[in-house]
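quick one
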Amino acid sequence: MKVGVLKGNGIGPEITAATIRTLNSTGLSFEWIDVPIADEAIAQYGHPLPPQVVNTIRELKVVIKAPLIVNKGRGRLTCAQPDGSEVTYPSLNNAIRRELGLFVNPRPLRGIPGISGKYADMDVVVMREITEDVYIGWEFRIGKTSAQAIKLTTREAAIRVARYSFEYARKNNRRKVSCLHKANVLNYTDGLFLNCCKEMAQEYPDIQFDDFMIDAACYTIIKQPERFDIIVTANQYGDIFSDLGAGLVGSLGLAPGANIGENVAVFEASHGAAPDIAGQGIANPGALILSGALMLEHIGRTRESRAVIEATRLVMGEGRVLTPDLGGNATTMNVADEIARQIEIILQSSY
Ligand code: NAI
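structure w/ NAI:
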């Protein structure tokens, strides 16, 4: 099984090594293909995301991606298109998603007994639309003292992410889809997004549907997390809301994610490159390891996927081998080794 690896920067290389270590312990034979990105791609091709790299990822179809540092206010990136035109993206991470046509970023937020306190039972999946909204990159300076950004919402993208959310709910026996928006202020953009979700809800009478204003949703998930199940929302709200949820679960280091397109999928943690702890070997690898479990499920390896999830939750919940974000003093690799050991035990006992 060929799987691409974008090992990123900051804590990226450390958590990537830990993830590969644990996924190898499933006994599946992976061929990990290093794909150059950012500085490595600049050294090789003169661009952080050249067409050669985009094509390699498309051919590989399945990629594990670690986080990439994007400099504040200087992240914009222009990519050449096959027809000779150019598209400018607001950041390298955004460019990867959009160059590959990835349209939904599912981010499961699941509490762990022993770690998550009153959020131990939380079990929510945020379905974040990732092609539009204010992250489209249409920002302009107006003279020296003003700037504006355009928020784009199209029916096509809203219907696509809503359909994906209801389909996911049905396939995974989930009870409800909630749309988060601010349609009381953004009448046309969020109004359209909400109406598309309502329209899609009509096609899935077996799944409940409701909607929340994004600000009220932030309050409600803290007070009554059980009111949420599957959440469908626009790009920026989903980005922010999923970090809030990760905080409730206990750490960004427990928040996995995937970026799904028609024929290609990129699996990455919800968190960033954590430059404040990079190079110290203390980052929590849990989020990227759980993203690896999403990758295993995606390629049809459900048994191994479940073993990775169970082992990760067991090690975290047990509390013996934890990184400092969860109050422990273990290293990234200590955690990976312990999860790998548990994966082997689980898989052996499930024969
Ligand atoms: P961040 O998510 O990297 O870090 C926020 C806080 O969470 C920090 O205190 C960090 O130490 C902690 N944290 C994050 N992941 C952790 C882990 N696995 N284990 C333990 N602690 C962890 O967000 P920040 O600091 O705003 O961004 C840092 C850089 O990452 C920026 O350049 C940003 O643009 C980039 N970024 C990249 C993303 C991606 O590649 N998909 C997503 C988000 C941010």
